[in-house]
């Protein structure tokens, strides 16, 4: 097997995670630039006379009085509002695949499968395995290339490797059969129970 | 960090949306020639900025706070996400199975929990080293450390990790 030996936990909103990271990095750079500029001017690095000027001095007021200034500020404010709205909407986007198209035959019509129908069946099958207390599943990707994400809580009485073998063997084989696909990439996260040992004080 | 980012996104997104609309409304109010503000009392801020020089203590403090905040946010956002899951070896390339580091620690603790002489356990699992701390009230520990090491080693091996961390056992003697 080739691949990383360690992974970050999976998220149902990978798009939002990426967007948040990018936007917050840009905001951090803007804050840093504004702070550094203020310090450079205030400490006289950009000229001693500049440091003794008011933050908003008459030349700045003159710019604010020009005809184009306030309309530009208004448009910029609306742009900020629109980008903020887009950022908020991005938080709700998940990678969940709600429906799968099994057959797309122009003559015979379409066969659709609700994603939850499959994930519930998988959850039930995994939940019935010895050593499993709870399982939750969801599908991501596209109808033609779905991916299965499975989180399994173990009870600690059965070897995790045994549960892992059962899932990657029979459970995924049944899921592939139900979806009529040859490959169904899956990510399984095993959650081992809290130790029954007494904790150190 | 994902959850902190999520909270920041919601707060800053709402502030940006409300602020942007309010500022645009104030601009329209000004362009229509109506005196005073609509909702944002910006006159006080404007006069404060006219009264303070760039070298004043308050302005320098604000600049310093902004720079530190920006730097802190930048470091946190650019820091690679922690890989808290350890991958289990599998023969099927389509299946990736992983166990959390805390889960690995729990497995190690459970493997020695029932041993005679073990009064408490604690674990800390990194990518390279898994440390199992065992507390015992035994005056003479005998071969307890080797038994603990063997049991925990078997438990770690049975997880079948792609790259199992090195096991480190720390036996701590405490008074009964």
Give a short summary of the structure.
The complex is a heterodimer of chains A (201) and B (176). Chain A contains six helices and six strands.
Walk me through the structure.
Chain A: Keywords: Membrane, Transmembrane, Transmembrane helix. Chain A: This is Alkaline shock response membrane anchor protein AmaP. Chain A: It comes from Klenkia soli. Chain A: The chain crosses the membrane at residues 22-48, 68-89. Chain B: The chain crosses the membrane at residues 54-76. Chain B: Pfam families: DUF6286. The complex is a heterodimer of chains A (201) and B (176). Chain A has 201 residues and is of the alpha+beta class. Chain A folds into two domains: 14-90, no CATH class; 99-191, Alpha-Beta Plaits, CATH 3.30.70.1350. Helix content of chain A is 48%, strand content 20%. Chain A has helices spanning 14-42, 48-51, 58-65, 69-90, 115-127, 160-179; strands spanning 6-7, 99-105, 109-114, 132-141, 146-154, 186-191. In chain A, the strands form two sheets. In chain A, strands 4-5-6 form a three-stranded mixed sheet. Chain A has a two-stranded antiparallel sheet with strand order 2-3. In chain A, helix 5 (115-127) packs antiparallel against helix 6. The longest helix of chain A is centred in the first third of the chain and has 29 residues, at 14-42. Residues 196-201 of chain A have low confidence and may be disordered. Chain B has 176 residues and is of the alpha+beta class. Chain B has two domains: 2-78, no CATH class; 85-173, GMP Synthetase, Chain A, domain 3 (2-Layer Sandwich). Chain B has helices at residues 2-31, 42-51, 57-78, 101-113, 144-158, and strands spanning 85-88, 95-100, 120-125, 129-136, 166-173. A three-stranded mixed sheet of chain B has the order 3-4-5, with helices on one face. In chain B, strands 1-2 form a two-stranded antiparallel sheet. In chain B, strand 1 (85-88) and strand 2 (95-100) form a beta hairpin. In chain B, helix 4 packs across helix 5. The radius of gyration of chain B is 29 Å and the shape is elongated. The two termini of chain B are 42 Å apart. The mean pLDDT of chain B is 90. Chains A and B meet through strand 1, helix 1, helix 4, helix 6 and strand 6 of A and helix 1, helix 2, helix 3, strand 1 and strand 2 of B. Strand 1 (6-7) of chain A pairs antiparallel with strand 1 (85-88) of chain B.
